[in-house]
Amino acid sequence: MNCINFHCHGCKKNGEGIQVVSYNLDEIDTQNIRKNCTVGIHPWQSSNPNVDQWLSQLEIISQSPNVLAIGEIGLDRLKGGSLELQNKILTAQANIAKNAGKPIIIHCVRAWSELIKTLSCSEFSSIKKAIHGFRGKVEMAKQLTDLGYYISFGSILVNATPELAETLTKIPLNRVFFETDDSSMPIEEVYSAAADILDMYIEDLIGITENNFNEFFDIKPA
Ligand SMILES: [Zn+2]
To answer: Alpha-carbon distance 132 to 26, whole Å?
Structure first.
């Protein structure tokens, strides 16, 4: 099955689908950048002493055609230094994404209003945005999709709470992605769980996410 894995770390290839591998600046081989990857400074690394150097590197790496997006970047109220500092690094990276004409993949924990405020400025309106590993409430998901964000769901769909299952059914399907993040679960299981929740054929869901993928990364089907 051709299940696209929207966001993973060091994931093993099993199946035919594209895997978008996410790297931090200290992990990526800049001489040999993997196809279909994303690169960014994670909010947990915002207070790292190398952050300025990483930002300059990111500016260069972001131009590589193998780098699909800048990410994961974002805000985390529970980890990674002050939100003020995280916001500064997020803003710097959103500027890099804008200049490179690439989307951003977002990690956000309990800082939704700050995130939306930062990314809603007119400068960043042209950037396509996706929240990865979403596990928030349906109201938040709707607010985000209304603002044009895409939402990616991870392995917790397999044991989804009724609230999370409801969230998946209430948002437009042309805004969804699925991912394994750092779980070792095969991506097919996430799609299968999502198809069950949505009461639809997994093949149809695969087709929908393929379209979303091409739309989000501005890929013209050959
Ligand atoms: Zn991740």
So the answer is: 21
pTM of the model: 0.95
Residues 30-52 have pLDDT tens digits of 888 999 999 999 999 999 999 99
Cα 21 from Cα 11, distance rounded (Å)? 7
Task: Give the Å distances, CA to CA, from 152 to 19, 46, 70, 102, 121.
Answer: 13, 23, 15, 17, 23
Residue spans per domain, the chain: 5-216
**222 pLDDT above the threshold of 80:** no
| CATH annotation of 5-216 | 3.20.20.140
Q: Which residues lie near ion ligand 1 (Cβ < 5 Å)? A: 181
- Compute the distance from residue 182 Cα to the ligand 1 centre, in Å: 6
Compute the residue count for the chain: 222
Q: How far is CA 155 from the centre of its chain?
A: 14
Q: What's the 23 CA to ligand 1 centre distance in angstroms?
A: 9
| CB-based contact 90:75 (threshold 8 Å) | yes
